[in-house]
Specification:
Layout: E1 5-7, H1 12-18, E2 26-29, H2 35-40, E3 48-51, E4 62-65, E5 68-72, H3 77-82, H4 84-89, H5 91-97, H6 103-106, H7 111-116, H8 124-130, E6 134-139, E7 142-147, E8 152-154, E9 157-158, E10 165-172, E11 178-184, E12 195-204, E13 207-216, E14 223-224, H9 226-232, H10 239-252, H11 263-282
Parallel strand pairs: 1-3, 2-3
Antiparallel strand pairs: 4-5, 5-10, 6-7, 6-10, 8-9, 11-12, 12-13, 13-14
Helix pairs in contact: 9-10, 10-11
Length: 287
């Protein structure tokens, strides 16, 4: 690696000021699990890294509010996995993280970094999206709030500006929600998935009254499966309904081919795992 300057601001506002939207060699650094690999491979050669490790501690914690969970962007994935508050109020997050990479990575990687990186193979984004999460983003002009639904725009691409940072993730309270995440890997259980499916639903007397379903890895970004949501809402679950939902998902998505499978293979996975994810959610108590 070539030499670079390391800035270590003590506030989020100071970190934002150190970012230059016109200089692509300046980059914020949180857990650096992906960034270091890019630097070692020579894909990215920074002139300056702005470390976020010393900013205010409140951006590295989890808080329970009346309207749900507030997760600081510098909270590590390992902290989320072990948090009693997460296990109580959004246990699908804790379950998901047990198969995300390995414990060494989870103890360093941060929530904000996992989202800002825009990697479509990450397990956390589709889960947070299914839970209806929103982001607080801070830039030179102040804060803005945006739904995670609108955050990812393409392969490793987000709406985040070069001089903006994610400050916080808000997961709304959903006391009657049942949720599940399923990943399909061609390797070990903690490998990058060929397909990730997350679903959060509410059922009343056997009928699905509301549902959010998301997909990742098989597509170029984490995305809502709105056609599936339309098929499922207001219906009682049976095999025929889940088959229609799987076909709707396969027709809605543009699939990407990679080392984990062809586009045709991932399309067939989608047809099957939409139904399996719904069944998995229904098999659990309220999350």
């Amino acid at each position: 690696m070539i030499p670079f300057e390391l800035a270590q601001p003590t506030t989020l506002a100071e970190a934002v000021r150190l970012l230059d939207p016109d200089d692509p060699t300046i980059r914020p650094a949180a857990g650096c699990t992906a960034l270091m690999l890019m630097m070692k491979a020579g894909v990215f050669r920074p002139a300056k890294l702005v470390s976020l490790r010393r900013i205010e501690p409140r951006y590295a914690g989890i808080a329970i509010a009346t309207d749900g969970l507030r997760i600081g962007a510098m909270t590590t994935l390992g902290t989320l996995e072990r948090s009693a508050d997460i296990r109580k109020h959004a246990p699908v997050i804790a379950r998901t993280l047990r198969t995300l990479s390995n414990v060494r990575v989870r103890n360093v990687a941060t929530v904000g970094g996992a989202l800002a990186h825009g990697d479509p193979h990450m397990d956390l984004p589709p889960v947070l999206m299914a839970l209806g999460a929103t982001l607080t983003v801070v830039g030179p002009d102040g804060e803005r709030r945006l739904p995670l639904d609108d955050f990812f725009t393409g392969y490793y691409e987000t709406v985040l500006q070069k001089n903006e940072l994610i400050a916080e993730v808000h997961v709304p309270a959903q006391p009657s929600m049942q949720a599940a995440y399923m990943k399909v890997t061609t390797g070990s259980v903690d490998d990058w998935p060929a397909l990730g499916i997350a679903v959060a639903l509410v059922r009343n007397r056997g009928t699905i009254t509301s549902v959010r379903m998301t997909a990742s890895a098989a597509t170029d970004r984490a995305m809502r499966l709105r056609s599936v949501e339309s098929v499922l809402t207001g219906e009682a679950v049976d095999d025929e309904l889940l088959m229609r939902a799987g076909e709707a998902a396969a027709g809605e998505c543009e699939f990407i081919a990679d080392v984990r499978g062809s586009a045709a293979y991932k399309r067939e996975l989608m047809k099957v795992y939409v139904g399996r994810a719904v069944r998995a959610a229904l098999a659990r108590g309220a999350d």
